Amino acid sequence: MPENADNSPSDAAVVTVVSAFAPGSSLVEAVRSAIGQSSVVVVDDGSPADGSVDATLDAVEGLGARVVRLPRNSGIGAALNAGIRDALADPDTSYVLTMDQDSTLPAGYVAILVSLADEARTAGIRVGSVAPEFAGGLRSNRSGELSGFVLAREPIQSGLLVPRDVLEKLGLLDEALFIDGVDTEYFLRTTQEGARCLVAPGLATGHQLGGTLAVEVLGRSVPVTVASTFRYYYQQRNLVILLRRWARRRPGWAATAVAKHVRHVAITTLLAPGRRARLAELRAGLVDGLRGKTGRRPEPTR
């Protein structure tokens, strides 16, 4: 992480938007890590009525966050968009930073991203977003350099700083995807317009990237990251949808995306328990993606 980082907010007006669903103590830690660096809006995405959820939301309000409650579970795109609209309603807002409820920001994080964005703009670069180098211990993919600035390849949305003018020009996130691929879609749209996504070298967020299982391979314990079973439906469906939209315009991205997805599915199928349920979700996602279905998956009839 760069030196001389503290918790002082930058001169630019930044609003951090945190999406939450059935939040627990991790949301409190997420807000606590951001509140000294920016204004914070927490959007509860239609969590079930629960005293512990109410207590958590009350706690983050007590820290100084504004809480917006959606009436129904509408997906991460809709939740973040609700917070972004709230942030942009203030004409002084210069940047919006999006964040998951299970992420945390280090001291000085916001100021570092804003400084990098401002420096790049001074150098004549159209800045689409700025991402940390590491999220949850994983390094962001890079796509080269431009005028000494490191370019990101498909950064995740948690911890991502987006300038106001980009949001106003391109519009908000694609709510129809519901969850998974929302950040990829915005990255593709941003870079297609000629804006650049930058990496802040050395900067890291805390972030939970799915669950990790220890599996035995040739007598050795190997960690395998596995998402919740239902997420495989959205991962498969939304990949198909994005391929249908973007494969001809971005063949390099398409080939890489398919290869990564196939590799992950192969590893989890071979090594992780619960493969039958995951494969069923993948099949359903493939069918619905080919049919062009979007939005929240209907609840199964009983």
UniProtKB/TrEMBL annotation:
Belongs to the glycosyltransferase 2 family. SUPFAM superfamilies: Nucleotide-diphospho-sugar transferases. It comes from the Bacteria. This is dTDP-rhamnosyl transferase RfbF. Residues 20-126 form the Glycosyltransferase 2-like domain. The keyword Cell membrane does not apply. The keyword GTP-binding does not apply. Pathway: Cell wall biogenesis; cell wall polysaccharide biosynthesis. The lineage of its organism: Bacteria, Bacillati, Actinomycetota, Actinomycetes, Micrococcales. Keywords: Glycosyltransferase, Transferase. GO terms for molecular function: glycosyltransferase activity. It comes from Serinibacter arcticus. Gene3D superfamilies: Spore Coat Polysaccharide Biosynthesis Protein SpsA, Chain A.
